[in-house]
Amino acid sequence: MQTYRAEKTAELLFNFPDGLNWSELDKQNVKLPVFMKFVDLVIERENDILLIEIKDPSHSRSQDKDRNAYLKRLSDNSVLTQELTPKARDSYLYLHLMERDGKPFKFVVLLGLDAFDPERQKALMFGFKDRLLAGIREESFEAWKRKHIADCVVLSVESWNQVFPDWPLYREPPTAPLALDGMLQ
Fold first, then answer.
1. C-alpha distances in angstroms, 67 versus 44, 64, 120, 128?
2. Domain residue ranges of the chain, discontinuous segments joined by +
3. pLDDT digits (tens, 9 = 90+) for 12-58
């Protein structure tokens, strides 16, 4: 099993089997095309390619004001239009230009909403997939002629583990480095 965290401070920890063909697309500290936004992960399966974006407003270090601001942005669709849709488009375009587009693309959005009550989560998730897919397919005054994203799904941490039981995900805060005599080890 290989483990993956989107960032060093991320709490969501993925376990991928050794044979799974996955890569990190939004790599840190490497040269990437300017002004393009990328999803966190790309997983190539036998019949499709998954573009996976991770958003975790439930991170334990998130303050209530930041969580509430993110919820507002989810509710008013600005997360959809300003973050998720551009990431799906740019990730597809990059993979297309790198000749890695031989299979249908599916966009998977993982929302860590477990810090919120279940009713609030349900309200936020209602219709989210449909709004997201509509936004991906029609970003301007007319719809894209090419359906670059075949489908999408929006998952919580709990539903991720139901949809992808072979790729378990759990919340684990990263271990903080110990300080001894004012020096980090």
1. 32, 5, 12, 18
2. 26-164
3. 999 999 999 999 999 888 899 999 999 999 999 999 999 999 999 99
